[in-house]
Specification:
The complex is a heterotrimer. Chain B has helices at 2-25, 34-39, 45-54, 61-73, 87-122, 127-141, 144-158, 174-208, 211-218, 223-261, 266-275, 279-307. By secondary structure, chain B is mainly α. Chain B has one domain (89-311): MetI-like fold. Chain C is an alpha/beta fold. The model of chain C is unreliable at 1-10 (pLDDT under 50). The chains are: A mainly alpha, B mainly alpha, C alpha/beta. Chains in contact: A-B, A-C, B-C.
Chain lengths: 330, 314, 340
């Protein structure tokens, strides 16, 4: 490829798509533009105060996302009022009625090995499970978002260092690192979700950094800078609103993973400690009596699967509605 | 090609060094005095002091790190605080099992994902596509350990087709090995299959719209050739990135699945160490797992060089 | 180019199309994008099809070659004959057997029309393996010969390279080599030079001309560039909004256009002989698919339009002279300006 081919030299031309550049195709082109000029994609950059209403309008039109939001709202409601609507005391033991099958009298989903009402435990577990997700997400975002933001905004050495750290964090098998962290810190839901949050932080870091770097080059940011808008103003007016959409998608997707991680850790006995129960730790208890009453493990698993499915659907719906393709972030 | 590989290797090394810092630093996260924690609640002051000296905790951090990393590099990961077995021996027992499990799971996940994605992409918008799209969302949503339990319930306890637990090394009896590894690998592979199928469906749909696919059809190539050759080679590029992440995730997910099926892999070693706070073992397992993950990612990157000639310096 | 008869007779017609109609599925339902197109191409003839984007010229040719995506398109025709084959009766499989040895395509975009993941040599050789049953070795040898034929220097080395290592013009030469590989009877060249700059464009046109003289195949040349048309075509069809609006021999069409749209196109063509002449253009936009105006589809942009043009049903394609047709109600009364 080093020798110069004269014919090739003569043919050098920019690698461009002609149809998009010389849009009009007809000879009478100059005054016959064929259709409209290429508009900015549907994922158009939201701007300033318009961002929020724009966001609501887009998401509101997406059936999948709306149904998923409905289900989540219901779960949050259950988590909030759970203790008041349980048919029985979730921790009350009754050793004369252990491992009852579903649809037994007074225990619609049966009882566990200590005779506790499974439905009541599931209802109370909702709060623990949702709290766990929230904690993990909060940790992940508190670490990932500002770091990604600063890293993308400053660039240079700092960015390189942060990205290497990020690569290092992403090289660990996530669950194994979480197990190790909990093993060292001691098993508790708080430690488990702290560990999961650290593992999730790179997703947010890379995402926010990518958006910020992309926006820095955008014309409207350049223009704003050129008329002397101070940096903090650019950040608040232009950059923050535009991280909203991709962050929302990432939160939905990450919440699903956080729930699965919590369940996994609790299943291993490294998360929620008895007598508290999350759905994950209920599967653990069910595992021990699996041969005799599989229902103990089946119900919480179904709830976890449905909740994660809801988060995945919400993420897909939001992605479609908000138009940003961030699938590589998985 | 070699140059591409070496460049990739060179960028991996600083990351690897950072990773060893993190693994070593686990010890610093122990609340309070690590020597007290490790020696246990009933230890006397003398015992704690002995532990401190034995673990070298009385020396400067840098020296401790240097000792640890140089021994680790020569294959000595220390000894377990509880069994007094060399950590490397325990890991040496568990690692091949976990690798066999993860590799089988990866294979199964691709065997599921590739046909699903192709059918889904080619029949885009039909009920078949919708079913497989919902199926792959569900595949992601199902907790693997729970799915494993369901498989045991169905295939072992109810149908009696496959053993519920246990493991037979491939070297002893390949048939038995397959019987024992199949359910764990399937359990572990399903989430990966779902993720890959989603990714691949998207990239096939993207590639199908490319001009060169039209060219391939204009040449009169048969549909099988157009899809199998022209579409798949290009659509696999993003999949490779996902596969790299998946290998890493599989090694972690194996911990749970091994627990369910009683597979004596690295995960069992890790869980035993965590329940006894056996710090050298925890560090060893994490270090080995992350090195295996990074190594497989390097191998995956080689495929990337094959699939995308542009990254291949000539 | 070789003198071709203006009205091809059945015997020397390689491709015959009668009343071709193509519908595509849009968000609002089925919409007709090619409406009743009929033409024939003689052996050794170069037929130009001229029109703006969306006029249906590319779709016409993709539909003939069976390359419109099934499911989202409907193609119907009274006659669709390529040599002895009735294309309307062929299965997709049989159609694939014909693409390559009987009809080959050259696409507009040499950047994206070659697969980035395979060597150039392999992309040529696979056509030969598919249709002529050549072995890997033989097909590779033939691929190098073909690269040499289309003027790619040091072909043996270049055959092992990937498309990204080629310039635009060289890629288009590769596309031509692929089309030429099985010696087709009809080559459809869809804007083959649009993406190239002027010098290269001339070289590629020259190459196409040489090849056609050598092999005597029919060429359908799709373009929007009347300059290119004047350079290479024997006969020209003008398409507007999915219909043919005028068809004639090259010289006659330029000298004596019978449709106001063609007059407008000619007037808008920049001329070398009179650069000071201000560019004239046709006002307005072509209609959108699925939103065709009543009456003559060109009337909203036509300076000669009358009430009849606006309200009557779409005018028919009428013969005004031997081998010259136009789709204009007012053609008997209008005297349109041609190109000098």
């Amino acid at each position: 490829m080093t020798e110069v081919d004269p014919r090739m030299a003569a043919e050098k031309k920019p690698d461009t798509t002609p149809e998009t550049i010389t849009a009009p195709e007809a000879p009478a082109a100059s005054a016959m533009p064929s259709g409209e000029p290429a508009t900015v994609s549907a994922a158009a950059l939201a701007h300033g105060g318009g961002a929020w209403s724009d966001f609501r309008r887009r998401v509101g039109g997406n059936t999948g996302a709306m149904i998923a939001l409905g289900v989540l709202t219901f779960l949050v409601l259950i988590a909030a009022i759970g203790p008041f609507i349980t048919p029985a005391d979730p921790n009350e033991q009754n050793l004369r009625a252990v491992l009852l099958d579903p649809f037994s009298a007074g225990h619609i989903l049966g009882t566990d090995q200590l005779g506790r009402d499974i439905l009541s435990r599931l209802i109370v577990g909702t709060r623990v499970s949702l709290f766990a997700i929230t904690l993990a997400l909060a940790v992940a975002m508190v670490i990932g978002v500002p770091l990604g933001f600063v890293s993308g905004f400053i660039g240079g050495r700092f960015d390189q260092l942060v990205m290497r750290l990020n690569d290092a964090a992403m090289s660990f098998p996530p669950l194994l690192l979480a197990i190790a962290l909990v093993g060292v810190l001691g098993p508790s839901l708080r430690n488990a979700m702290f560990a999961v949050g650290i593992l999730m932080a790179p997703r947010f870091l890379r995402l926010v950094r990518g958006v910020v770097i992309g926006l820095k080059e955008e014309t409207f940011v350049e223009a704003s800078r050129s008329i002397g808008t101070p940096t903090w103003m650019i950040i608040i007016r232009h950059i923050l609103p535009n991280t909203l959409s991709p962050l929302t998608v990432a939160i939905a997707v990450t919440a699903g993973y956080a729930m699965l991680s919590e369940a996994g850790l609790s299943f291993l006995g490294l998360g929620v400690q008895p007598p508290d129960a999350s759905w994950g730790s209920m599967i653990r208890e069910g595992f021990l009596y699996f041969g005799r009453s599989p229902w103990l493990g089946i119900f919480p698993g179904v709830l976890i699967a449905l909740t994660v499915f809801t988060f995945v659907t919400l993420g897909d719906g939001l992605r479609d509605a908000l138009g940003r393709e961030e699938r590589t972030e998985s | 090609m070699l140059k591409f590989f070496l460049t990739r290797l060179a960028t991996t090394i600083p990351v690897l060094i950072l990773v060893t810092f993190v693994v070593f630093g686990l010890v610093l996260l122990i609340p309070g005095d690590p020597a007290v924690t490790i020696a246990g609640p009933d230890a006397t002051v003398e015992q704690v002091a002995a532990v401190r000296v034995r673990l070298g905790l009385d020396r400067p951090m840098v020296v401790q790190y240097w000792d640890w990393i140089t021994s680790a590099a020569s294959g000595d990961l220390g000894t377990s605080l509880f069994t007094s077995r060399p950590v490397a021996t325990s890991i040496g027992d568990g690692l091949p099992v976990t690798i066999a499990l993860a590799a089988t799971a990866l294979l199964i996940s691709l065997l599921i994902a590739i046909p699903t994605a192709i059918v889904s992409a080619l029949r885009r918008g039909t009920w078949l596509d919708r079913v497989s799209t919902i199926g792959s969302s569900l595949g992601i949503a199902l907790p693997s350990f729970w799915l494993g339990l369901m498989f045991v319930l169905l295939f072992s306890l109810t149908l009696g087709w496959l053993p519920a637990t246990g493991y037979v090394p491939m070297s002893r009896n390949p048939g038995d090995w397959l019987l024992h590894i199949f359910l764990p690998a399937l359990t572990l592979g399903i989430a990966g299959a779902a993720e890959s199928a989603r990714q691949l469906r998207g990239s096939i749909i993207g590639v199908l719209q490319q001009d060169y696919v039209r060219t391939a059809r204009a040449k009169g190539l048969r549909g099988r050739m157009v899809i199998g050759k022209h579409v798949m080679k290009n659509a696999s590029v993003p999949l490779v990135t996902v596969l790299g992440l998946q290998i890493t995730a599989l090694l972690g997910g194996a911990v749970l699945v091994e627990q369910i099926f009683g597979v004596p892999g690295l995960g069992q070693v890790a869980i035993n160490a965590v329940t006894t706070r056996d710090i050298p073992v925890i560090q060893g397992v994490v270090l080995v797992a992350v090195v295996v993950a990074m190594g497989s990612n390097l191998l995956v990157d080689l495929t990337y060089g094959y699939l995308n000639p542009k990254v291949r310096p000539r | 180019m070789t003198a071709a008869p203006t009205t091809p007779t059945a015997t020397d017609t390689t491709l015959e199309v009668e009343n071709l109609k193509v519908d595509v599925l849009t968000e609002k339902g089925w919409a007709t994008v090619v409406d009743g197109v009929s033409f024939g191409v003689a052996r050794g003839e170069t037929l130009g099809i001229v029109g703006e984007s969306g006029s249906g010229k590319s779709v016409t040719c993709l539909a003939i070659a069976g390359l419109m995506p099934p499911g989202q398109t409907r193609v119907t025709a009274d006659t669709l004959r390529l040599l002895e084959h009735d294309l309307t009766a062929l299965s997709p499989k049989e159609m694939a057997d014909i693409r390559g040895p009987k009809i080959a395509m050259i696409f507009q975009e040499p950047m994206s029309s070659l697969n980035p993941a395979f060597t150039v040599g392999d992309q040529i050789a696979e056509v030969l393996r598919r249709h002529e049953g050549l072995s890997r070795k033989e097909s590779r040898k033939r691929a190098i010969e073909l690269l040499d034929r289309v003027g790619v220097p040091s072909p043996a080395r270049r055959a092992l390279q990937y498309p990204f290592e080629f310039s635009g013009g060289m890629r288009q030469r590769v596309m031509i080599a692929i089309a030429l590989a099985c010696n087709p009877d009809v080559i459809v060249a869809d804007e083959p030079t649009t993406a190239l700059d002027v010098t290269v464009q001339a070289q590629i046109l020259e190459l196409l001309r040489e090849i056609q003289e050598e092999h005597g195949m029919s060429v359908i040349f799709i373009t929007h560039d009347l300059g290119v048309v004047a350079d290479v075509c024997d006969r020209v069809l003008v398409m507007y909004a999915g219909q043919i609006v005028e068809g004639a021999d090259l010289a006659e069409l330029f000298a004596d256009p019978q449709h106001p749209y063609m007059e407008g196109l000619l007037a808008a063509m920049p001329r070398m002989d009179n650069p000071s002449d201000a560019l004239v253009s046709i006002p307005g936009h072509p209609p959108r698919v699925g939103d065709m105006p009543d009456g003559c589809r060109f009337h909203p942009r036509c300076g000669y339009a009358t009430d009849a043009c606006r309200t009557d049903s779409s005018p028919l394609l009428e013969r005004v002279a031997p081998g010259h047709t136009t789709r204009c109600l007012r053609h008997p009364e209008l005297t349109l300006r041609g190109s000098p």
